[in-house]
Design a protein that fits this description.
mainly alpha
Length: 57
């Protein structure tokens, strides 16, 4: 949909009003760098075995 159409729909409902504001997410690719985030936030991935065991329990 074009931005103008989304803005028109957004005037009809509060949830839809957020869509035009978030269009910048689709203007260019998003680049996520997990190693930088992991270092800065002191994060480590959960081992898949632990995740599966917890899910199955």
């Amino acid at each position: 949909m074009a931005r103008a159409e989304l803005e028109r729909i957004g005037r009809a409902g509060s949830v839809m009003a957020e869509f035009p504001e978030m269009l910048y997410l689709y203007d260019r690719p998003s680049i996520l760098d997990a190693p930088v985030s992991a270092t800065v936030l002191n994060l480590a991935p959960t081992p898949i075995g632990s995740v599966l065991a917890e899910t199955a329990a």
